[in-house]
Predict the 3D structure of the following.
Amino acid sequence: MEDNLFECTVLHEETVKKVKETMPEDGIIYDLAELFKVFADSTRMKIIYALLKEELCVCDIASIVQTTQSAISHQLRILKQTKLVKYRKEGKVVYYSLDDDHIAEIVKKGREHIDEL
Amino acid sequence: MEDNLFECTVLHEETVKKVKETMPEDGIIYDLAELFKVFADSTRMKIIYALLKEELCVCDIASIVQTTQSAISHQLRILKQTKLVKYRKEGKVVYYSLDDDHIAEIVKKGREHIDEL
DNA sequence: TAAACATATGAATATATATTCATATGTTTC
DNA sequence: GAAACATATGAATATATATTCATATGTTTA
């Protein structure tokens, strides 16, 4: 009659109850996972690193990342949708830059972890 | 004769050269993307949040995350391989806990970004 | 040592997503 | 307004990966 589907006799009920209460809503968890998904691809990570330095147009990025304009453009769309980059147009050229101070910090923390392994 | 495959006349050569010099090696970028990949799944994010509170056994985690023991175990393997969690055995029960201080910081920075949108 | 139990794992399936290719859109210049 | 150019995008393909199911492994207890 317990509401856990997990037939398990060593379950620490008090602990589980306490931890459950502190868990963020599923929506928050989902959004967090979605955010980190953006950082979870080499191409996008390269784009982010490049933009950490300065504003760049699409063909600059393609040259730096050594990938096709199309692939870059698709990835920039994702970065745009998740509000990690902003852009401005100058004629037919589009300049992208980072749109959030947290990005640098997240990358830095990740880098610290990597460097300590 | 340029070494860029990107037929693009507005390329900012000086800028591109400068940024290229500051880019981390591909290996670092790859490792970073792999790290963030671990955070990029709702189930793993829930496990991480649960373990932020305290050490838990597999069936506790399954109960908190409301998923099967098998799914949790598969995800814990990934968290183990990437050195984000450690474990200790007590008889047939296995207790998992976070293995790195950066994890909390990375999640916190991500959360700050989410909360500001 | 056999049964009960906690956890781990291999294989299969389903789903997500990165890249490529072709082409569309929008801007500038002649 | 036509050609050249920078960027965007839809469709298709290929690859990665999360979950499920069945079962294996290892530990405790009767």
Remarks:
- Chain B has a mean pLDDT of 92.
- Chain B has six helices and three strands.
- The beta strands of chain B are 56-57, 85-90, 93-98.
- Chain B has one domain: 9-116.
